[in-house]
Every structure is written in structure tokens, then in C-alpha cells.
Write a structure and sequence with these properties.
By secondary structure, this protein is of the alpha/beta class. 25% of the residues lie in helices and 25% in strands. It has a single domain (7-37, 59-335), classed as Metallo-beta-lactamase, Chain A, CATH 3.60.15.10.
Length: 338
């Protein structure tokens, strides 16, 4: 695949802790996180997963970061978005935050080959660029219908169906694109589906194509309907936490033995009650990485308030997680299964 300014990351041995890390760790993380590393030797029980794809040899799949930031204007990062590559084809787009459509082109990804867009939730830093992708797709050779999946709505947020309609449907903000929502009116049709009440025991499941399937689990992001996503392809499993405080405690089970687990690191342990109702703390992130036994971990959705502790958190996870741990950067591309 063609990737401009590509930062391809190859798996290798995990980093060992150093004296510098110990100092940074103690200063950046709360006492609770230190206690977790020292005494939490017994992992919590995880829900068993019988899916045979977990046992297939993972090959020819990578995950590229289009945006590693949140909604801040001055953090030097695009907002959250990721491409799942299968072989040389960009197959799945997870989230479409502000700036991600520009990064999509910089990554050399193809809108024509996309099989689905998966939205974790409808905050602007996760979904604002969706109309830009649709408009940009006009200048491609796409002819296959495009699946857009995301959460159902509530009193605070619209459903994904309503969101797409309000943007590009008839009477929407960009109604000149409405032909893409009507079967037979344009080169392809956007098919949307809103997902509600998906659980670890009964996740939403959808086979997107012969080689790719997806699963979703509802997660807590305060009052905002939100999903964690799992993408399976070529024996590889990648899980995207999205924004959540993991109130249900199911994220580690959902990501059990994943080849890559993407965790959003937006706050520090000293954050207030409102922030902790929306996001995981570093202490929680360490525990989830440990309990999931994910083969690789990527920290993303990095905000200025969480960036100061990022190096220390990366080192702390490397102590307890079985594989490599990365801090996300724009256009970083992590190869799975090597």
C-alpha cells in the first residue's frame, strides 16, 4: 500500500522498566496504579470466546492511525479515526473524526475498497468528517454500496440512521448528496444501521464481506450512546475501545487475546467526576490491557491533559501486558501477526 510519511511499526520484544520509568510512573500515575502493579497478581475471570478465528494464524492485516487526538484545536493531532488494511486494500474505517478525510488520502487509502465505516459514537471528534468522505467519494470509481454502522440514539443524541439522514438525506444539511441515500439514484448507496443493547454475551455481529466480519458491544460514555468495535480478518482480531469509562467492566473480555487492542487515553487519574463518567483512567487502562492479554496495545485519543503521563503509562502497560505497547501518532501503521 502507498503510505506517505508512513511510520510502520513492527512487533518485537516489550520494553523493560528503567529507573527513569519508575520515577515517571510514580509521578504520572496515581497510587492506585502503583498498587495495581504490585499486588494485583490474580487476573479477573474473562468471558470465554469460542470463535475459531481467534485460533487462526493472523496474517496480512494492519491498522493505521488517521487521527490520534480528541476534539482540541491545538493538540497537533487529527481527531479519532483508523483504517484496517487487509493485504493492500483499505477495508474498514473506524470513526471519522475531524481531519480524518485528509489523513485518509495521506495514507494512500482507497475509498473504492472500503467495505464499511464503523462509528463508535457521534461526537464531532469521531464522526464529523463523514460528509467529507461521501463527497470525496464522488471523485472515485466506487460502485459498491457502502455500509455505515453506529450506535442507536437516545434523548441526547440521534441514532446513526438519523445522523446520516440529517447530514446527507433529503432535507439534510448537505442534501445535495442525498442521491447516495436512495437506492438506484447514484453510483452506490449508503446503507446505515443503528445498534442498541449489544452486550459481551450477545454482541452485534455482521459479516461485511467474505474476508471481514465485525462485532460491536455497547459501552458507557456518560449520556452518549457508544460502541466498542471488533474487526476480524485473515485470522486477525483488532478491538477498538472507543470512548468509554468501561463501567460494565466488559472491555477486557471483549478484547480477550486480540491481536491489537486500541485504548483511548483521554484523562489522568486525577480527573473529575464528569470526565471519569466519560473516559477510562490510566489505572483502568493498565488493568484492561493486562486482563485482556491482547498481543499488542495502542494508546490513542490522546489529549493535552493525558499526554504528560503518556510515556509513563506506556511503560507501565509494558510491564504487565504480554506484547508491544505503542503511543499513537498520525499515520502510524501497526502490522498484526508478525
Amino acid at each position: 500500500m502507498k503510505v506517505l510519511n508512513e511510520k510502520r511499526v513492527k512487533p518485537g520484544s516489550q520494553r523493560a522498566p528503567s529507573q527513569l520509568f519508575r520515577f515517571a510512573y510514580k509521578s504520572a500515575l496515581s497510587a492506585a496504579a502503583v498498587l495495581l502493579l504490585s499486588i494485583n497478581a490474580q487476573p479477573a475471570s474473562l468471558a470465554a470466546q469460542s470463535d475459531s478465528t481467534l485460533h487462526d494464524a493472523c496474517h496480512d492485516v494492519s491498522v493505521q492511525v488517521l487521527g490520534s487526538g480528541g476534539p482540541e484545536l491545538d493538540d497537533g493531532r487529527s481527531s479519532s479515526a483508523y483504517v484496517v488494511w487487509v493485504g493492500e486494500s483499505s477495508k474498514i474505517l473506524v470513526d471519522a473524526g475531524s481531519g480524518s478525510s485528509i489523513q485518509f488520502g495521506a495514507a494512500g487509502a482507497s475509498f473504492t475498497s472500503l467495505e464499511a465505516i464503523l462509528l463508535s459514537h457521534l461526537h464531532t471528534d469521531h464522526a464529523a468528517d463523514l460528509p467529507s468522505f461521501i463527497k470525496g467519494g464522488y471523485f472515485t470509481n466506487r460502485s459498491d454500496d457502502l455500509l455505515v454502522l453506529g450506535p442507536d440514539g437516545n434523548k441526547v443524541m440521534p441514532s446513526t440512521d438519523a445522523y446520516v439522514s440529517s447530514l446527507i438525506g433529503e432535507g439534510g444539511a448537505f442534501s445535495y448528496l442525498s442521491s447516495y441515500t436512495e437506492k438506484g439514484q447514484d453510483d452506490y448507496t449508503i446503507a446505515t444501521h443503528s445498534i442498541a443493547n449489544a452486550t459481551l454475551q450477545k454482541p452485534f455481529e455482521r459479516r461485511v464481506s467474505e474476508s471481514v466480519s465485525v462485532e460491536a458491544m455497547s459501552v458507557n460514555h456518560g449520556p452518549i450512546p457508544a460502541l466498542a468495535w471488533k474487526v476480524k480478518a485473515n485470522g486477525c482480531v483488532v478491538v477498538f475501545s472507543g470512548d468509554t469509562n468501561d463501567q460494565q467492566g466488559d472491555l477486557a473480555g471483549f478484547a480477550n487475546n486480540a491481536d491489537l487492542l486500541v485504548l483511548h487515553n483521554a484523562i489522568d487519574d486525577r480527573a473529575g467526576r464528569v470526565a471519569k463518567n466519560l473516559h477510562m483512567t490510566p489505572t483502568q487502562i493498565i488493568d484492561i490491557a493486562k486482563q485482556s492479554k491482547a498481543k499488542q496495545v495502542l494508546l490513542s485519543h490522546i489529549m493535552k491533559r493525558s499526554e504528560t503521563g503518556l510515556d509513563a503509562l506506556t511503560e507501565a502497560i509494558a510491564v504487565v501486558a504480554p506484547g508491544r505497547v505503542y503511543a499513537a501518532e498520525e499515520l502510524m501503521n501497526i502490522t498484526l501477526g508478525e
